Structure prediction request, 173 residues.
Amino acid sequence: MKSVLLVEDDKRFRDTLRASFEGLGYQVFAIASEREYFSLKVKSIDYAVLDLQLEKGSSLSIIPLIKRYHSDCRILMLTGFGTVTAAVQAIKLGADNFIHKPATLSRILSALDEDISNLDDIPQETPTLARQERDYIEFVLARCDGNISKAARELGIHRQSLQRKLRSYPPLR
Prediction:
């Protein structure tokens, strides 16, 4: 039986992925943080699906640990707020692939089989300042569960200014 490690801080998404992988016959180890990784008593992990941005930090620090104890494990970084820099860093640390959310189970499975063995395969376009700002605002908004007022306070701007910025963004493709 193949095994998969899921590191995802969004409980609903983690539970959905767990159920989907279990439905395909995988043994699933689902955790929400790096700290929980140390409590795992697992002899073998075939695949790992890691969310880049965790509630407390990043899962980039888990990649070398997985590679040290499970050298044949295929690692996929999954993120809703990824940048080219983060993708390159993940690949350099040992991840096999990097994709953006939202992602279907079939996309995740195919990405686990794909290999970005050469960093030249990653598009090297630098995101614009406007794109980086948008990604960060969406990250903070997601962390605040969509609460505009809370996100505006965390960003240090007025609520109406945040709403105006959000309205000005074109839809993502």
The first strand starts at residue 3 and ends at 7. The CA atoms of residues 53 and 59 lie 7 Å apart. The chain has two domains: 3-121, 129-168.
